[in-house]
Write a structure and sequence with these properties.
mainly alpha; two-stranded antiparallel ribbon; globular; about 5% strand
Length: about 325
């Protein structure tokens, strides 16, 4: 048992390092392949009905997790192979380096005053309508996306990996991908995507709280992060994005939230850390660096937690054998 947990820790660290070095490939990414399968299944199953959407979510996420579990089981007790599988899976599901790369690309264009290039790059980062945004609006969109995706693309996956190994990693990324595909409140997906959105809310809860807590620890203004989290985190329409964006806003000393155009509709979201100024171009780099610190701390925390559970179980089993 201890060897299994140590193998996971080694694989998780290697996969995290792999994401730092290689990031996401432009083509042939496993998550993109899952998206194509989920899209094909959607075309067959789609009805304006929650039941069909629930079946879609269960088949896609459950099938991906079951396949990962079978692959892990096929490796048996071969520790090096299991560690390699963990490393490959962690690399595939994490997106922290790509997140920072895309955020810096928009930030660089804004700094150069090239709003057309910034608008061209923004959809690589988030689903907002770039034509409806000026420079400050895009800076705000980038900072908010970096905050939210630190949880979705890094911390949440590490949490579920620590809890469920390779199947946990795959299940979390599958659920998060389904939410991005069908979980928004457009006329087509209001009912069909309901189950995927609710499942993503549940899966994202522990990672978002850990992200907010680590932001308090890693950010330049701990009191500001904690104050904004407590005051404004619950006001956001997303139960998971709220604490993360609020803590980022508080520690960076910027104001987030407000009106945005998303998916062809206008949303009026609550303001987070409203006494602060709106984010500027320089705050994009600050947000990316904070995201990286939070990600490293999340790796350390989740691996340490997994190892601690393994050690506790080993002591418990040893005690029973002696009795």
């Amino acid at each position: 048992m201890r060897g299994e947990h140590a193998g996971y820790a080694c694989g998780a660290a290697l996969g995290f390092l792999g994401d730092l070095i290689a990031a996401d490939p432009r083509r042939g990414h496993p998550v993109a392949a899952f998206g194509r399968v989920a899209g094909a299944l959607e075309r067959r199953l789609w009805r304006d009905h929650r039941g069909y959407g629930t079946a879609h979510a269960v088949l896609c996420a459950g099938g991906a997790a079951a396949g990962a579990a079978l692959l892990q089981r096929a490796l048996g007790g071969r520790a090096p192979a299991r560690a390699a599988l963990t490393a490959a899976t962690v690399w595939a599901v994490l997106g922290g380096t790509s997140l920072g790369r895309e955020a810096r690309a928009v930030g660089g264009a804004l700094e150069a005053g090239d709003l057309d290039v910034a608008r061209e790059r923004l959809p690589h980062l988030c689903g907002r309508d770039p034509q409806a945004l000026d420079g400050p609006g895009m800076a705000r969109a980038v900072v908010e996306s970096v905050a939210e995706n630190t949880s979705d693309a890094v911390v949440g996956a590490l949490v579920w990996g620590a809890l469920g190994g390779v199947p946990g990693l795959v299940a979390f990324r599958a659920v998060n991908t389904l939410d991005a595909m069908v979980g928004h409140k457009s006329p087509r997906y209001r009912r069909f995507g309901w189950a995927s959105a609710r499942l993503d809310d549940v899966a994202g809860w522990p990672g978002s709280r850990l992200t907010a807590a680590l932001t308090v620890l890693a950010g330049p203004d701990r009191r500001g992060a904690l104050r904004a989290w407590r005051a404004d985190g619950g006001a956001h329409p997303s139960p998971n994005a709220g604490p993360v964006e609020a803590s980022f806003a508080g520690t960076l000393g910027v104001r987030l939230g407000g009106t945005l155009a998303y998916g062809g509709r206008v949303e009026h979201r609550p303001v987070l850390n409203g006494q602060a100024p709106p984010p500027g171009t320089d705050d994009i780099e600050r947000a990316v660096r904070l995201s990286r610190r939070v990600s490293v701390l999340a790796l350390a925390a989740t691996v340490a937690g997994r190892l601690a559970v393994g050690a506790a179980r080993h002591r418990s089993e040893s005690g029973r054998k002696r009795r």
